[in-house]
Amino acid sequence: VPPPATTTTARLAAATLADRSARGIAAAVGRLISAGELADGARLPTVRAVAGELGVSPGTVGEAWRLLGDAGLVSTHGRNGTLVNGTERPRRPGRYGRLGARVTGVSWPLASGTPDPSLLPPLDRALARLHHSAAVVDYLAPPVLPELAAVLQDRWPHPVETVCLTSGCLDALDRLVRQLTRFGDKVVVEHPTFPPLLDLVAAAGAEPISVTLDDDGMDPAGLAAALTQRPRLVLLQPRAHNPTGITMTPSRAATLAELVRPHPAIVIEDDHIGDLATTPPVTLGAAIPHQTVRVLGFSKAYGPDLRLAAVGGPAGIVQTLADGMAIGPGWTSRLLQRLLADLLTDAATQTSLAAARRTYTERREQLIAGLAARGVELRCADGINCWLPVADEADALVRLATQGVAVAPGAPFMAEPDSPHVRVTVGRIDHGIDHVVALLADAAAPTPATTAPR
Ligand SMILES: Cc1ncc(COP(=O)(O)O)c(C=O)c1O
User: Fold this and answer.
1) CA-to-CA distance for 15 and 182, rounded, in angstroms?
2) How far is the CA of 243 from the centre of ligand 1 (A)?
3) CA-CA to 439 of 20 to 30 Å: which in 68, 317, 325, 412?
4) Which residues line the pocket of ligand 1, CB cutoff 6 A?
5) pLDDT of residue 90
6) Calpha distance 127→396 (Å, rounded)
7) For 23-60, how does the pLDDT look when each residue is reduced to its tens digit (9 = 90+)?
8) Distances (CA, A) of 147 to 228, 233, 308
9) Global confidence as pTM
């Protein structure tokens, strides 16, 4: 039976004595829900009643309700008011759902953010070898195959305490953010960034603080300002950033590490591009290993369906992540781990990866040169995506789609308001690049005479 609204207001008044900001009120309601004091389906008191009881403005309470809604804890039901969601909360499609990445039937599917299937290394020989070596009988064997653990430790850019495996980067990031934040904690995110990263921060009930990038990586002044707000996490993509293609320089990594060092914050690096990157790994972990967790993806280079990522960092964090998996999936399939260990050490596979990197580089360079010839300046340092400023997002999407080119809308990537952009998965332009470049140039915003640093 939902508790009477007045009781809830009184409880809230007691629970928010220390912090009556929107975040503080939302966090207090979150705790009442977690403690079961606000049951599934309970109606929150009206904004006006709570504002009166707590002595804050209705706007503050409205903002708190919005934060709770974003985290999926409550929903508004018209005249029935705002109700606590059941424990089986439907996860809203969020920003990821707005990407339109699965557009089919177009000549150039450049909305996907995924590698060109024809540039993934062939698996047949590694699969044949797997057939002779696989043992698939054991619950109790170590969750990470010792031979794979050895390869990963060896490749890690600095000595790392513990490495575990998850079902892809997003699985790792989702688990880490939930593990390391409490409702209402602040998390530094890049602007722009990969939309699911913003979705998973919101789903954990954390509050993003956005920091922009320049050509060398996350902006140090922006990070310094964000750190004064005592964030719990700093979430960044070190190489071939999605959507901009920016790779952090080693000197920027060192600068950012020194900024983070005095703070109780943990850096989580989403190195999703892995072996498709044309530069060596770069990580804040080289300087602040006790504050850095690096997530290394294999989907882009070896195939999204491998569903494997490696997580390396301080034992206290990575072992807790692995322990959390032990009560759910248990471990990631050792069959796939065996396949990955083979691919990482197989000369023919590594040769085909080198060829893929060259092809992606050619496609990026052709796009950059073709746009430059039409007066559009675009930077796109590495990876498979680029971030194209356009005059108008909706107009660009429609105009390109009618000519057979699907690109992703820019808005879901934006952690703060910005000028319109679209994300173009340049790595998927496998034919007709001159034609596509001409279409993209038509959609692009005119490049200003002097370009401000991004
Ligand atoms: C920045 C970023 N992180 C994570 C992922 C997903 O990686 P995984 O397939 O390893 O979950 C992607 C895929 O596009 C990505 O662009």
Assistant:
1) 16
2) 11
3) 412
4) 113, 168-170, 194, 237, 242, 270, 272, 297, 299, 304, 309
5) 47
6) 43
7) 889 888 888 887 788 888 888 999 999 999 999 999 99
8) 43, 31, 15
9) 0.84
Contact 120, 276 (CB under 8 A): no
Q: Which of 137-146, 199-208, 290-299, 320-329 has the lowest mean pLDDT?
A: 137-146
pLDDT of residue 134: 58
By C-alpha distance, which of 82, 76, 69, 90 is closest to 8? 82
* Short-list 73, 288, 95, 319, CA closest to 192: 95
Q: Which of 270, 305, 307, 384 to mutate to test the pocket of ligand 1 (most atoms within 8 A of CB)?
A: 270
| pLDDT tens-digit map of 52-107 | 999 999 999 999 988 888 777 888 887 888 888 876 554 556 888 777 656 677 89
Is the separation of the CB atoms in 291 and 260 below 8 Å?
Answer: yes
- Model confidence at 263, pLDDT cuts 50, 70, 90, reads very high
Asked if the peptide bond before residue 192 counts as cis, ω within 30 degrees of 0, the response is: yes
What does the block give as tokens for 2?
Answer: 């939902």
Residue indicated by tokens 């698939």: 136
Nearest protein Cα to ligand 1, atom 12: 272
Residue 114 CB partners (closer than 8 Å, separation 6+) = 101, 300, 304, 384, 425, 428
- CA of 426 from ligand 1 middle (Å) equals 16
User: Collapsing DSSP states into helix, strand and coil, what is residue 453?
Assistant: coil
Angle between helices 47-54 and 58-70 (to 10 degrees): 120
- C-alpha to C-alpha distance for 293 and 270, rounded to whole angstroms: 9
- pLDDT number for residue 336: 94
**Tokens coding 383:** 């990876």
